[in-house]
Specification:
Distance between the termini: 28 Å
CATH topology: TIM Barrel
CATH architecture: Alpha-Beta Barrel
Bound molecules: NADP nicotinamide-adenine-dinucleotide phosphate
Radius of gyration: 18 Å
Helix content: 25-40%
Structural class: alpha/beta
Order of helices and strands: EEHEHEHEHEHEHEHHEHH
Shape: globular
CATH class: Alpha Beta
Length: 283
């Protein structure tokens, strides 16, 4: 699996990781999801993304089981809910997340989306967590450029490491200002929902046909083409969610090769990025 520097942090992180939203469910579904996460780690998909929100903590517990005994292999990320993101609330939420994940330290802790609690309070808690060794890096999610700047200014003695945002072929607005700003600041951009939650694009749509042609030419699958395209720029990572082994294996094949310039041009034509600034899209 191709790895690249995670912004300024010095950490080397695989360009394709694994999401965990909705991995919780029946015992059988959770067993399959945990097996898929472990197989993904074997394949180098070691960036595991979770959140206290997912299944009200259950996704963290399932992820915790999946990484048991393998913590050292994983770049582990979780998120605090905005409603918990006061200074004390962030510290408490992190403690619960660590317990559910069965670990004593997260690699990255994110504010899930903008909070009504002042950003200065949340970032002060993030700095305390770093100083106490409970998280290595602090970041945000669903932040536009101005919000990223505000989070950066709120940090006193640590730097913002990452911004996790919606990015798929139908939502390319971040290519205009957010990705360039984050790359310039060496803030890692993590693309969530790379497949538009499995709804995008439809195989028989004109765009779906373009992707199928590229996939055939490259000897890859459409999903592998999508993941390769979304991670074509340095500083950008993605975290597809897969609930079974076959999907995880397929997703792992999205890196380690390069689309040809004409493939990228064809995708640009079929799924154009906006030609003017648009508000940050989020789920
Ligand atoms: N920060 C945020 O606000 C935020 C918001 C949304 C998501 N996220 C993170 O990003 C992760 C990914 O986003 P997402 O879960 O919304 O959607 P996604 O990864 O775009 O799509 C997940 C869907 O794609 C299917 N899928 C995955 N690989 C496949 C394959 N190879 N072949 C066929 N189907 C495949 C999955 O099915 P199976 O389950 O059957 O494999 C699932 O239904 C989340 O799990 C979460 O960790 C963050």
């Amino acid at each position: 699996m191709t790895q690249r520097p995670f912004g300024w942090t010095g950490a080397l992180v695989p360009v394709i990781g694994q999401g965990t939203w909705m991995i919780e469910g029946s015992a059988e579904a959770e067993r399959r999801a945990a097996d898929a996460l472990r197989a993904g780690i074997d394949l180098g998909l070691t960036h595991i993304d979770t959140a206290e929100m997912y299944g009200s903590g259950r996704a963290e517990e399932v992820a915790g089981k999946a990484i048991a005994g393998r913590r050292g292999e994983v770049f582990l990320v979780s998120k605090v809910l905005p409603s918990n993101a006061s200074y004390e609330g962030t510290l408490r939420a992190c403690e619960c997340t660590l317990r559910r994940l069965g670990t004593d330290c997260l690699d990255l802790y994110l504010l899930h989306w903008e909070s009504e609690h002042p950003i200065g309070e949340t970032m002060r808690a993030m700095e305390r967590l770093i100083d106490d060794g409970l998280i290595r890096f602090a970041g945000v999610s669903n932040f536009d450029v101005d919000q990223v700047r505000a989070a950066q200014s709120a940090l006193r003695h640590h730097k913002l490491a990452s911004n996790q945002v919606l990015y798929h072929l139908g939502e390319r607005g971040i290519e205009r200002r957010l990705i360039p700003y984050c790359r310039e600041q060496e803030i890692a951009v993590v693309a969530y929902t790379p497949f538009g939650r499995a709804k995008f694009p439809k195989p028989l749509s004109p765009g779906g046909r373009v992707l199928a042609e590229i996939a055939q030419r490259q000897g890859r699958t459409v999903r592998q083409v999508i993941l390769n395209f979304l991670t074509r720029l340095d500083g950008v990572f993605t975290i597809p969610k897969a609930g079974n082994l076959e999907h995880t294996r397929e997703n792992a094949g999205g890196a380690g090769w390069a689309l040809a310039p004409e493939d990228i041009a064809a995708i640009d034509r079929a799924f154009p990025a906006p030609t003017r600034d648009v508000p940050l899209a989020m789920l």
